[in-house]
């Protein structure tokens, strides 16, 4: 950790940035148990409801291109505060609409606002840390981040048991506005004025273009996007696979989803524990091979009678590996981005959310079967492994 930060300040920073970076995904996790109820009320089908996930992810992806350059030019703090005020107000507006088209549109705007948390949290961490310290901090950040997938579906599942789905978005509004206040009073600016990028948006887009054209960066950027695509293949399909396909009630599914969230937390901490024995790149290669193997077994299981416990076990292993892989891919990229950390973080977020948005509807093509989800997981892991090997050979 940065020696200039006290232990208490490090803990506060981890908790604050972990919460800030989780708010975009929280906008998805919290309302997942309500999707079947919302589908009935909106009188639509599963694909259109999943499109509300996709539109949020597209917003999260495009929002990176706004928040990243802004934070490099104007500092980290003020873009964060503005982003979460907008996030809170849009979340409140969603609670009062009953049109699937309007829902999809507002979810897109909600994603753009939520992107500020994802991109700037990574940039703040890079402002303060590098090397193994950065790996450890990202692991801690993902641990806090991973708590929300554990508690969010539980909260959402029990909320829809007693109240309508609109209450979930009221809660999201309160969370967004509370974070805006916490950032305003509790986060010091980490990017000094003399280190900010000059030249406006053109210079920022040139910097982002650099990351997409250099062999040291672009394969890993696409690889982290594919890993995230695998994660959202599971997220978008899981509610229909386990509730509609295997017949689990919403509360049971919420607990299962939360347990898998715990798996992500455990996996996110794995790279920090292995750092003394293996480099980040060695870990990345080995864990991608393991992820390919688990997803291959999940594919083969489709040839036999469906077994919910086998699927649950394989999915748990997969999300643990995904948690570790996200920590590793982000660390490898950000550790090379000494300058323009906001732009580098924006490129990561763009790739992750773009691939997540593409994977979500594809994973739902088989309805209540887990066939499409299994295929997407294998394709994403195999693609990420191939790109990682390419980068290691040519960078």
TrEMBL record:
The chain crosses the membrane at residues 46-67, 79-98, 137-161, 167-187, 216-235, 255-272, 284-304, 310-334, 346-364, 370-388. Residues 13-395 form the Major facilitator superfamily (MFS) profile domain. It is a multi-pass membrane protein. Keywords: Cell membrane, Membrane, Transmembrane, Transmembrane helix, Transport. It is found in: Cell membrane. CDD domains: MFS_MdfA_MDR_like. It holds the Pfam family MFS_1. This is Bcr/CflA family efflux transporter. It comes from Levilactobacillus zymae. The gene is tcaB.
């Amino acid at each position: 950790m940065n020696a200039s930060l006290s232990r208490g300040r490090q803990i506060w920073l981890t908790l604050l940035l972990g919460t800030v970076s989780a708010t975009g995904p929280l906008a998805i996790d919290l309302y997942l148990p309500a999707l079947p109820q919302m589908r009935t009320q909106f009188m639509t089908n599963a694909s259109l409801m999943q499109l509300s996930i996709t539109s949020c992810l597209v917003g999260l992806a495009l929002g990176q291109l706004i928040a990243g350059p802004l934070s490099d030019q104007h500092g980290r703090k003020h873009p964060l505060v503005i982003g979460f005020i907008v996030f809170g107000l849009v979340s409140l507006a969603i609670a009062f609409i009953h049109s699937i088209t309007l829902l999809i549109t507002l979810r897109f705007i909600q994603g753009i606002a939520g992107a500020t948390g994802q991109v700037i949290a990574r940039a703040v961490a890079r402002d303060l840390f590098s090397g193994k310290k950065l790996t450890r901090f990202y692991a801690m950040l993902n641990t806090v981040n991973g708590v929300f997938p554990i508690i969010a579906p539980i909260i959402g599942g029990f909320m829809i048991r007693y109240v309508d789905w609109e209450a979930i978005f009221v809660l999201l509004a309160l969370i967004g506005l509370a974070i805006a206040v916490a950032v305003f009073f509790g986060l010091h600016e980490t990017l000094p004025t003399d280190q900010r990028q000059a030249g406006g948006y053109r210079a920022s887009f040139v910097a982002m273009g650099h990351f997409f054209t250099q062999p040291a960066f672009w394969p890993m950027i696409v690889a982290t996007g594919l890993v995230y695509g695998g994660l959202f293949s599971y997220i978008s399909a899981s509610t229909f696979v386990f509730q509609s396909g295997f017949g689990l009630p919403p509360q049971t599914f919420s607990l299962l989803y939360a347990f898998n969230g715990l798996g992500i937390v455990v996996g996110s901490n794995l790279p920090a524990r292995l750092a003394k024995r293996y480099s980040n790149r060695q870990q990345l290669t080995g864990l991608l091979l393991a992820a390919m193997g688990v997803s291959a077994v999940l594919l083969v299981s489709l040839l036999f009678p469906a077994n919910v416990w086998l699927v649950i076990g394989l999915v748990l292993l997969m999300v643990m590996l995904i948690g570790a892989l996200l920590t590793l891919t982000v660390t490898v990229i950000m550790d090379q981005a000494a300058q323009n950390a906001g732009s580098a973080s924006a490129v990561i977020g763009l790739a992750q959310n773009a691939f997540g948005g593409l994977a979500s509807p594809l994973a739902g093509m088989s309805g209540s079967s887990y066939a499409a989800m299994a295929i997407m997981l294998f394709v994403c892991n195999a693609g990420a492994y191939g790109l990682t090997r390419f980068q290691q050979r040519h960078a």
